[in-house]
TrEMBL record:
Identification of the protein by name: Sulfatase-like hydrolase/transferase
Domain Sulfatase N-terminal span(s) in chain numbering: 291-559
Subcellular location: Cell membrane
Domain of life: Bacteria
Length: 676
């Protein structure tokens, strides 16, 4: 297909005002963009499936409000064309070259908009939302993200089809891009540009991304938005100041409430300062300086397991390990990103809004679990199969008590069974971990390893002949995750230090975050095994547990007496009824207590519901239980305040040995319930 010169325009067109003639291509772009937005929304509606009930009111809201967001976004999107139509001199604009430049500019804009639309479909398929903070976050790491897309999708074919679609649309609608100008002057055209600028500024201040969130269905709210608008809104809110955007309590009250909320029988505050959370944790008897291997598995949702009702039998080894371990079946993750899991497992802190502390500024020398181990002569390593610059992992861990070990530490001579853009296969990662464990043991040091896996991540490619499932599918990746953990434990069993090693296996987050509520609780449910045949009695624990409780509970099992500013509990020291969890997104902060989920949101809004733990749906609570709102506020406000004011750092006195209790408190191992 080729673009041929058009016949003369009708007299009615030529009689239009010169400015209307000159800026008529804006109508072409606007109509094209609105139609593209409607088509994108229609496809996303189909992808949402049962997430959006068959209710015409929902559909009308999504497409009606969505049209408004598309028109607002068009004001921004059209700026390249507005500038071109303003700056091109009349003579050049009306020339053949000017006409072809306009065609090329229109094609480039249309290709970009179509590319964004297709990207939204991919993003929705992965996360169940339009572009948000995750998309902004990924933009920083173009190598991994583009590599992941190339390995997961036929990118070349898609780009070629997009080019063909652009050419077809351009040929069919080329009349809308005719260069016509009845005699406009530069300053005259400038008035249009000034009006466009004023409109841009006005909507920037008057229009918010949250205005669409007025229904009780998150999918409908997401469909009502616009991907480009949501992307830049998320970019602006990547650093959310808690005190500015969320409900607050008086500072002294917030700290006083948190001191009461984190107090447990084996803990004693070292001072009466209401803003000092430092406690001395005391257990009876000697400490157990056992080796610890903490494995945070990429995207290991509880519902992948037969233990929780899955019928595919893709985790036979992990299901078998349940009866051999101290297994926690009511555990909830802090977030939906790896960095949130790493933050919870290293710092035992509720999530702060916006960036995770793993990626935030001034995140060095924080009070971490590694510092507790290092004070006892341990070698603490963070071991990752990819390149740890991703998500700032190497910097964060190396500045908070860990030795960072990643793909760079695997030599070219080492056998690699498989790798993709995210890193080496899990079995090769575990080989690297075993090397670190052997080295520490040879030096006579106990070791603490935090191992972060990657294989259970799109593109889901795994070594051949390991699992029967089709390579490149989520089922294959989960089955391979299961196989590689069993293989790792089998290999570790032959080591002289195996009997004195505790294996802690959990997930960083679930595989999906999509749901009909703002914080679908079923998308935060993760498993936890604590496995050490010679030291840990197998039991199944049903009590509610937060991801930030894993480290304090582990330290209790080791009978450590230490100074702590962790927000988490040793679950076995906690009185029944005080359990809580902190499921959150980057801006919506959840607090689960009992059967009520409280969610704090920007603009000091909140919602409270009784969640359905199977589906993630929720029933609003009326009237709101203010005591739970205050508890949630206190936790999140104090955590954000302490980080902002650099009060989470490690202190010299933290290394001071804490004397064991003469018998006032049991060890966590002794406090474990006698029955399941």
């Amino acid at each position: 297909m080729t673009l041929r010169p058009e016949p003369p325009l009708p007299a009615t067109y030529l009689s239009a005002s010169p400015l209307r003639q000159r800026f008529r291509p804006l109508w072409w772009l606007g109509i094209t963009y609105v139609l593209l937005g409607a088509i994108t929304r229609l496809v996303l509606l189909g992808m949402a499936g049962s997430g959006v009930p068959h209710n015409p009111l929902y559909w009308a809201y999504a497409f009606g409000v969505g049209l408004g967001y598309d028109l607002v976004t068009f004001i921004y999107v059209a700026w390249p064309l507005v500038l071109f139509l303003w700056l091109m001199p009349q003579r050049a604009y009306l020339s053949r070259v000017g006409q072809w430049v306009l065609y090329v500019l229109g094609a480039v804009l249309l290709y970009w908009l179509m590319f964004v639309a297709v990207s939204e479909l991919v993003f929705w398929n992965e996360f169940g939302t339009r572009f948000n903070f995750i998309a902004v976050d990924y933009l920083v790491y173009t190598t991994e993200v583009i590599g992941n897309i190339r390995e997961s999708y036929p990118l070349g074919t898609w780009l070629s089809l997009l080019a063909l679609a652009v050419l077809v649309v351009l040929v069919l609608s080329r009349k809308g891009l005719r260069t016509r100008d009845g005699g406009t002057r530069f300053l005259q055209r400038g008035k249009v540009v000034l009006t466009w600028l004023a409109l841009t500024v006005l909507i920037s201040f008057a229009f918010k991304g949250t205005l669409k969130d007025r229904t009780d269905n998150v999918f409908v709210n997401e469909l009502s938005g616009n991907g480009i608008y949501e992307f830049f809104a998320a970019f602006r809110s990547s650093h959310l100041d808690y005190s500015r955007f969320y409900t607050t309590l008086p500072e002294d009250q917030a700290f006083r409430d948190v001191r009461a909320l984190i107090k447990t029988p084996e803990a004693t505050f070292i001072s009466d300062d209401p803003r000092d959370l430092t406690r001395e944790i005391r257990h009876t008897g000697p400490e157990k300086h056992l080796n610890v291997v903490l494995i945070s598995v990429e995207s290991l949702s509880a519902d992948f397991m037969k233990t929780f009702g899955d019928k595919r039998d893709i985790t036979p080894n992990l299901d078998a390990l349940v009866d051999q371990s101290l297994f926690f079946d009511n555990l909830y993750a802090n977030g939906t990103r790896t960095v949130r899991g790493l933050e919870a497992l290293s710092l035992s802190i509720p999530p702060t809004p916006g960036d995770s502390l793993v990626k935030a500024h001034n995140n060095e020398n924080l009070f971490s679990v590694a510092t507790v181990f290092n004070d006892r002569g341990y070698q603490s390593d963070f071991v990752y199969g990819g390149y740890g610059y991703f998500d700032n992992m190497n910097y964060y861990f190396s500045h908070n008590g860990y030795r960072a070990v990643d793909r760079n530490d695997i030599s070219k001579s080492d056998p690699i069974h498989h790798e993709n853009v995210w890193g080496v296969a899990d079995e090769d990662l575990y080989t690297l971990a075993l090397r670190q464990m052997d080295s520490s043991h040879a030096e006579g040091k106990p070791f603490f390893l935090h191992v972060m896996t990657t294989s259970n991540h799109r593109p889901f490619t795994v070594p051949a002949d390991r699992v029967p499932q089709k390579n490149g599918t989520r089922e294959a990746a989960v089955a391979y995750t299961d196989w590689s953990i069993a293989d790792f434990i089998k290999r570790a069993r032959s080591k002289p230090y195996f009997d004195d090693t505790i294996f802690v296996i959990t997930a960083d987050h679930c595989s999906s975050s999509a749901g009909r509520t703002s914080v679908p609780i079923n998308r935060y449910h993760i498993p936890l095994w604590i496995y050490a045949p010679k030291h840990i009695q197998p039991q199944r624990v049903h009590r509610l547990m937060s991801q930030i409780d894993i480290v304090p509970t582990l330290l209790g099992l080791l009978n450590f007496s230490y100074r702590s500013r962790f927000f988490g509990y040793d679950l076995f020291q906690l009185e029944p009824g005080r359990e809580r969890a902190f499921p959150a997104t980057y801006e919506k902060l959840g607090y689960l207590h009992g059967d009520i989920l409280t969610v704090l949101e920007p603009q000091r809004r909140l919602e409270q519901m009784k969640p359905d733990f199977d589906t993630g749906d929720g029933t609003p609570v009326h009237p709101v239980q203010q005591s739970l709102v205050d508890q949630a506020t206190a936790y999140y406000q104090v955590a954000a305040h302490m980080y902002k004011n650099q009060q989470l750092g490690r202190r010299k006195e933290d290394s001071t040995p804490v004397q064991p209790s003469p018998g006032a408190a049991e060890s966590a191992a002794d406090a474990m319930p006698a029955s399941h």
